[in-house]
Amino acid sequence: MTKINVNDMLTSYDKKNLRIATVCSHSSLQIFNGARKEGLKTIGISVGEKKKFYDAFPLGKPDEFLIVDNYKDILKFTEELREKNAIVIPHGSFVEYLGADKFSTLDLPTFGNRDVLKWESDRNMERKWLEGAGLVMPKEIKDPKNIDKPVIVKYHGAKGGKGFFIAKTYDEFKKRIEKGKSYIIQEFVMGTRYYIHYFYSPIQDNAYKLSKGSLQLLSMDRRDETTIDEVQRLGSIAELEELGIHPTFVVTGNIPIVMRESLLPKVFKMGEAVVEKSLKLFGGMIGSFCLETVVTEDLEFRVFEISSRIVAGTNPYIAGSPYSEMIQPDLSTGRRIAQEIKFAAKKNLLNEILT
Ligand code: ATP
User: Fold this and answer.
1) What number of other Cβ atoms are within 10 A of residue 174's Cβ?
2) In angstroms, what is the span from residue 224 Cα to ligand 1's centroid?
3) Model pTM greater than 0.70?
4) What is the pLDDT of residues 15-65, one digit of tens each?
5) Nearest CA to 305 among 287, 290, 286, 288?
6) Domain check: are 218 and 235 in the same one?
7) Which domain holds residue 152?
8) Which residues line ligand 1 (CB under 6 A)?
9) Which of 236, 253, 270 is the last residue of a domain?
10) Is 150 within 8 Å of 167 (Cβ atoms)?
11) CATH code of the domain in which 103 resides
């Protein structure tokens, strides 16, 4: 893999005219809106055609569009983007559809540490990182014959929960599993789900202090997943399964939520542990990240996934959240990213937050 040298790329950059660039989907309205609030210009990379709906949201619209035929074609425009002093903000669709490999060698300054990609995209490495940090993950069941309580079966590379299923016995597993696809089996954790949105700055010390820099809690959400979240409208899961109707986990939206305050110390401890471990393993994850958790009835957290970039669950909070409001009014994750870039540019620290 070619090693990107961000310092080389930044030498030609006019640091007073940086532009925020991202692909027009996922959380781009928020990213453009946040940049606008911080006085930064924006470039929307639109795949296929200019997305008409941006016209309906003048404050979330990029200052200019770059239209490409498909994700791969973004690679043809990197020089043009560098001439415009573009800094790329990754989000879930951008990385997923361009492909983690291509994304990690994109020769554009990118917000965050791209070395995180290999740690989060491989479920074994992710487990090594999170459990190594002391977080508790759902147990993995290596042999389906050992299924003796509800499990969730996850296919590799599934997008947004597509195709995942619940099984309670080995027989159920055998009936549902699709041949030829690789999968993992996890204990199905009973509890309530919280998707917690953090922001880690390695260069600012004005929040929850870590060995290097500091951590903020910006917001949290619960995902709205079809059809599992609405299945009770038709009957019990057992009744429906008899009819061959199986609940699925495809994300269709995000619901704002707050957590009982007594859980917040644990929330910060988990965020702290995962950042400190990342510093040791690969030089640290930077900026926004999300821990996807279930809180059990014993008020214990189980963490089933980490996303180390802005997640779509931050979108209910474009005008701030019940947590970010206590940091600064009107602070979204998108705005916080723009602030970090502005701060780093001013202090000559861009190489600390970009790769
Ligand atoms: P994404 O990459 O978009 O986060 P994904 O395809 O990697 O999604 P997960 O986030 O691992 O999938 O899981 C999808 C959904 O399945 C979760 O949002 C949650 O509702 C449910 N889920 C996942 N793991 C568990 C578990 N161990 N116990 C209970 N529910 C779970």
Assistant:
1) 12
2) 12
3) yes
4) 999 999 999 999 999 999 999 999 999 999 999 987 899 999 999 999 999
5) 290
6) no
7) 144-189+225-253
8) 138, 152, 154, 158, 160-161, 164, 186, 188-189, 193, 223, 225, 249, 292, 294, 304-305, 307
9) 253
10) yes
11) 3.30.470.20
